[in-house]
Amino acid sequence: MTPVLGSVSLSLATGFGILSVILLSLYIRSGDYRLFLAGRRMAIIVSALVIIATLLLVKELITSNFDVDYVAHYTSIETPTIYKFTALWAGQSGSLLFWVFILSIYSLIMIFQNRNRYHRMMPWVLCVILTVQLFFLILTNFITNPFEPTNADFVIANGLGLNPLLQNLTMAIHPPVLYLGFVGFTIPFAFTFAALLTNEKGSLWVRSIRRWSLVTWLALSCGIILGGWWAYQELGWGGYWAWDPVENASFMPWLTGTAFLHSIIIQEKKNMLRVWNTILIMLTFALTIFGTFLTRSGVMSSVHSFTESPLGPIFLAFVAIIVTVCAILVFQGLPKMKSDKHIESLTSRESGFLFNNVVFVTMCFAVFWGTIFPVISEAVRGTKITVGPPFFNQVNVPIGLLLLMLTGVGPLLAWRRTSRSNFIKYFSIPVGLALIAAIVFLLFGFRGYVVISLTLSVFVVVAIITEFKRGIQARVNRFGESSFVAFRTMVRKNRSRYGGYFVHLGIVLMFIGFTGQAFNLKKEFGLGINDREHVGDINFELKQLREEERPNHFAWIAELLVTGKDGNSITTLLPEKRIYFHRDPNPDRRQPHSELDIHTTLKGDIYSVFSSIDTDNGIAFFQIMINPLVQFVWYGGYMLVLGTLIALWPSKREKLLT
Description:
Elements: H1 2-30, H2 33-62, H3 69-74, H4 81-86, H5 92-113, H6 122-143, H7 169-184, H8 186-198, H9 204-235, H10 245-270, H11 274-296, H12 303-308, H13 311-337, H14 349-381, H15 389-412, H16 420-443, H17 449-479, H18 483-493, H19 495-515, E1 521-527, E2 532-535, E3 538-550, E4 553-563, E5 569-573, E6 576-580, E7 591-595, E8 597-600, E9 604-614, E10 619-628, H20 631-648, H21 652-657
Antiparallel strand pairs: 1-10, 2-3, 3-4, 4-5, 4-6, 6-7, 8-9, 9-10
């Protein structure tokens, strides 16, 4: 009965969504406010029905109702309860329902927040959001229904279960956080679309979409970082970013969204770059839909699987419609969006933001082209050309280093124009210390991108510290405050600016972590009990191998004693080799999985993977990696979150305005 209720809820949501769009369209033409109220109430009903359908699917997953095909494919009796819940976004139909579920929550928040504001824009905003909801509702109703009954002539006693790689706590958090970012960009896109149609030029809605964008950008950033953390902790290859199409699908809207957040500051403060902002937010939204298309259509596995699935062409058509409509609107609205103000100097902060936009968009295009080129190659020539990390690194590392430099240059530039004397004054210390650092790095034997990255990191850190010092000193001299009070007051009075500086410091820490990959060590070997092997200056001795049977898998557990070159103990690592569905009589159903163990220090990680085991000879095979500085990537992520939260925290004046 519950699956029927779920399907009915999705069908009713689709019907109410169509009615709501019709009523809002009639209101736009007639101006009868009753039509708007009815349309808005129906939009609320649409979101409520989607939420009900999602909760019903969660119930079916947790109670293991294998009469539902989706439940039978992604859960089993042995699957822990938390992973039965996360199975909601493990498959195609569930993840698409989850997409529209998050959009429905965002829609309700947006309607509640703006129930007495933006009266000219709100009908268009709601129409855009409802259109997106209807697209996903059509998919979940007619193409890939998560409540589809199992097609079998017998009672299914157990399901296939969740992929072992997904049975990880980080993976339980990563997709919903990533989706919060992906889906959230629909709201600022809808407002921008509506503002373009109504010729809205006020500053209040600009501030509103900036805050929406900042929240969703934070979610997207956290989702990307959590995805890297999951890959590092679970996949066993010792890295956190492989330029995989799924990774690129989230990275591309992050790039354009980051450019938009920088650029919209200029529109808010100087009423400039409105064309840029309109294009960037529309591009960001289109890339979130395109990213969902990449990961859910089957196109990345093969063009043939894409053409065999009805989902792929529909998604691609929707992306094409979005891009076409946006291009037409931007072209028609160009005369109205042009500002009377212009960038006065190349050495101004405005020009720095504009150059920043160009670099972000260039990197986005490079990632986009590298991601879709294999698909185009297969479609045109019949052969699939693999574009791997070497291409992406060769193209994007120089662009990334340029962006790193800009994070330090931007804060040192003044609005409108930076005079020659101020240019020398502000840049002399950061540039001087960076050059000294470069000489030191060269003396230590560092070369190439390592020297450039670390030198630019020094430059950015010194530039930001200089900015903090200038602000603190100004308050100390003017108000006689202590340095701590001056720092706290300075940040509180300009949260956006100084929160952004903390984000920039986080980016620097992450770049230091990225640079550490140049010093990675890796070795594979087999060990019997009490055998020893070394990687660099670190020794590994297999002390024990034991077996353990658990509810949903069988595990061999290795005990590796890790010692330094002086013989002193560093740690004991306990990597595991697991077999999921080990009781299944069909050997093809049994799934091997390596559960790695990591010893973490600020200097670097000792990364151990239990690759396989020869039970006849009692030999365990390991892959050991020494990864320097990798913790700086995660610390940089923490700093990025802190800075964004500082920028988001409303001041007393903002609270009064809202």
